[in-house]
Amino acid sequence: MKSDLIRCSWANTDNELMRNYHDNEWGRPCHDDQKLFELLSLEIMQAGLSWQTVLNKRSAFKDAFVDFDYLKVQSLEPQLPQLLANAQIIRNKRKILAIIANAKVIASMASQGTTFNHYLWSFVNQTPIQHHYRSHEEIPSTTEVAKQISKQMKLAGFKFTGPVVIYSFMQAAGLVNDHETGCFLYQKIAHDAG
């Protein structure tokens, strides 16, 4: 059931998964490599689909992609036929291969002493970008910063990381605060980042 909290318009829903995701994860600065890899992977899976579809399948994704442990995911290519046969997840070969490829890039970075967290947050000088959007309609699908990050990630070997996917990922991982200004979380996240 809905509470009296004022949320971002996209989270005003009867879907409890969507509300919980908004209230407890979306837009909160994330610095955990495994969690960041999960959020990136989910955004890749979401491309062209609804976020609700992805959230409804999230636990199945976690099972299929060994809890998004990138050290394990990088070795999943031999299991591609099983993944493509798994009706519980989104069976898109290009997206699945991109997630495996991205795990390899993150694992390679780690072996060279660079965390995925440090790599990502260096693009925003370790500080979330604070936006001031009043409504969901004002929020762009991508930005110049997202385009730059996308370009650099592609050069680093990441797959399926176009500017729109990257901007959604930045929103999810809290690299930008795109909570609507009237949302109960907007000031809290802006204050915590300050």
TrEMBL record:
SUPFAM superfamilies registered for this protein in UniProt: DNA-glycosylase
Positions of transmembrane segments: none
Gene3D superfamilies, alphabetized: Hypothetical protein, domain 2
Protein name per the record: DNA-3-methyladenine glycosylase I
Species of provenance: Lentilactobacillus fungorum
